[in-house]
Amino acid sequence: MTPAAIETFFATLKAANPHPQTELEFSSVFELLAAVLLSAQATDVGVNKATRRLFVVANTPQKILDLGIEGLEQHIKTIGLYRSKAKHLMQTCQMLVELHGGQVPRTREALEALPGVGRKTANVVLNVAFGEPTMAVDTHLFRLGNRTGLAPGKTPLEVEHKLLKRIPPAYMVDAHHWLILHGRYVCQSRKPLCWQCGVAAVCGFTLKTPAPPG
DNA sequence: ATCCCGAGGG
DNA sequence: CCCTCTGGAT
User: What are this entry's molecular-function GO terms (predicted)?
Assistant: First the structure.
């Protein structure tokens, strides 16, 4: 995709949604971290169901520790990968209490040192909680980067670097959410809705036979 | 490279 | 049935 096309791409997404946000529900930085940790290979809808149950009972690291591993598992059992997530969240809460005064750290290194927190999760927290222009490459960004030609790459890290290089700085902070929402609702994995896509004109991928909405 | 792993959609 | 969902650890 040419620089001009990229400009049009994001200007179009911005016009349709000036202030994009995550659809994960949270009311503190810790809740955000916990929700993102739980969101691996799971839908926001599913995560929100579980965190609504969980955060009423435990919305701080210490309160989650007090639940115990089995108590925590019960609250998040409806999410995929729930056993490893419960274990990791518990270990992360332990570290937050012991090393960070119960607060969520603000640096990439400290975030990625937390069990269950990798580069993608750290990027989301840095972006959403601390306003940094990071690019968290999840399944949607990876697919769109390659499908549209915006940032082709064989690995998420390669796509991330290309996105950071190619997206105009003015769009960088919100780009992550524009791409995720576009991927979720329009440029879907199985069923890209090209006939109702606002950026199809500058996209390298176009469905040959656009299926009618019916 | 493989494992983890429930819910929802097609 | 199969695929996908804001991945990370081993």
Answer: class I DNA-(apurinic or apyrimidinic site) endonuclease activity
Of all nucleotides, the one whose C1′ comes closest to residue A46's CA is B7
Which CATH entry fits the domain spanning A3-20+134-202: 1.10.1670.10, 3.90.320.10, 2.60.40.60, 3.90.1490.10?
A: 1.10.1670.10
Q: Is A44 a catalytic residue?
A: no
Task: Give A146-190 as a DSSP string.
Answer: HHHSSS--SSHHHHHHHHHHHS-HHHHHHHHHHHHHHHHHTB-SS
**CATH class entry, domain A29-128:** mainly alpha
- Sign of the C-alpha dihedral computed for residues A27, A28, A31 and A35 taken in this order: positive
**pLDDT tens-digit profile, chain A (214 residues):** 999 999 999 999 999 999 999 999 999 999 999 999 999 999 999 999 999 999 999 999 999 999 999 999 999 999 999 999 999 999 999 999 999 999 999 999 999 999 999 999 999 999 999 999 999 999 999 999 999 999 999 999 999 999 999 999 999 999 999 999 999 999 999 999 999 999 999 999 987 666 665 4
Residue A197 annotated as binding site: yes
pTM of the model: 0.96
Domain limits, chain A: 3-20+134-202, 29-128
Catalytic residue selected from A63, A66, A85, A120: A120
